[in-house]
C-alpha cells in the first residue's frame, strides 16, 4: 500500500472517531433535560435515593450527592481490593435501609436481605441529606451507604451517607 493510501486511511479513522465522540458528548441525559414525571418533579429530583449516595464529593463540605449512571442505582454491595504503600487493603460499600442506630453502631438491611452492622469511630464522616451530620441524626427507615476500609489495623467505618425517607 502506498504511503498516501495509508495516510488517507489514518485520516478517515481519526475523523470517524472524532465524530463518534462528538455524538456521544451531545447525547442528552435525564440530568441535562427538563423532563418531568407524573408529579411534576424533574427526573433528576425523582432519581433513586440509593443512586445519590454513590456520587462524587460535592458541595463545600464534600457531602453533596450527585446522580451516577443508571447502573450504579443497582449496587447493593461492592468490595474492592486496593494497593496501599504497605500492601493491600479492601474498601467495602453496603447500601440499604437503616434498621437501627444504637450509640456509635449502625445497622442496615441491604436489598438482598443481608444485614450489615458497622461501628463508627471519632474520625467517621457522617452525612445526611447532603449535609455534615452525626450518627444520632440518622433514623430507622433512612437509606444509608456504609463505606468501610479494611487494612492491617482492622476494619474502620470511614463514611456514612444517609438520606431521609421523605427525600
Q: Indicate the percent of residues in helices.
A: 10-25%
Structural class determined from secondary elements: alpha+beta
The assigned CATH architecture is Beta Barrel
Q: Low-confidence stretches at least 5 residues in length (pLDDT < 50)?
A: 43-51
Largest sheet: 5 strands, mixed, barrel
Helix count?
2
Instruction: Predict the CATH topology.
Output: OB fold (Dihydrolipoamide Acetyltransferase, E2P)
Q: How many domain modules?
A: 1
Quote the average pLDDT. 76
Number of strands: 7
The order of strands across the largest sheet is 2-3-4-7-6
Say which CATH homologous superfamily is assigned: Copper binding periplasmic protein CusF
Order of helices and strands: HHEEEEEEE
**Would you state the CATH class?**
Mainly Beta
Shape: elongated
Taking Cα atoms only, what radius of gyration do you get, to the nearest Å?
Answer: 22 Å
Determine the N-to-C terminus distance: 63 Å
Strand content: 35-45%
How does this structure look, described?
By secondary structure, the chain is of the alpha+beta class. It has a single domain (about 45-165), classed as OB fold (Dihydrolipoamide Acetyltransferase, E2P) (Beta Barrel), CATH 2.40.50. About 15% of the residues lie in helices and about 40% in strands. It contains 2 helices and 7 strands, in the order H-H-E-E-E-E-E-E-E. A 5-stranded mixed beta barrel has the order 2-3-4-7-6. Strand 6 (about 145-150) and strand 7 form a beta hairpin. Mean pLDDT is about 75; it is low at about 45-50.
What would you say about this model in short?
This protein is of the alpha+beta class.
Amino acid at each position: 500500500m502506498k504511503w498516501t493510501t495509508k495516510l488517507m486511511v489514518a485520516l478517515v479513522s481519526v475523523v470517524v472517531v472524532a465524530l463518534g465522540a462528538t455524538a456521544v458528548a451531545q447525547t442528552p441525559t435525564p440530568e441535562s433535560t427538563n423532563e418531568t414525571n407524573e408529579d411534576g418533579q424533574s427526573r433528576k429530583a425523582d432519581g433513586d435515593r440509593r443512586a445519590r449516595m454513590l456520587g462524587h464529593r460535592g458541595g463545600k463540605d464534600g457531602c453533596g450527592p450527585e446522580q451516577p449512571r443508571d447502573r450504579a442505582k443497582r449496587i447493593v454491595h461492592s468490595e474492592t481490593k486496593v494497593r496501599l504503600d504497605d500492601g493491600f487493603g479492601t474498601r467495602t460499600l453496603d447500601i440499604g435501609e437503616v434498621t437501627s442506630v444504637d450509640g456509635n453502631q449502625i445497622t442496615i438491611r441491604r436489598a438482598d436481605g443481608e444485614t450489615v452492622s458497622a461501628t463508627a469511630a471519632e474520625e467517621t464522616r457522617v452525612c445526611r441529606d447532603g449535609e455534615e451530620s452525626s450518627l444520632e441524626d440518622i433514623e430507622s427507615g433512612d437509606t444509608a451507604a456504609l463505606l468501610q476500609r479494611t487494612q492491617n489495623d482492622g476494619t474502620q467505618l470511614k463514611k456514612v451517607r444517609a438520606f431521609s425517607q421523605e427525600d
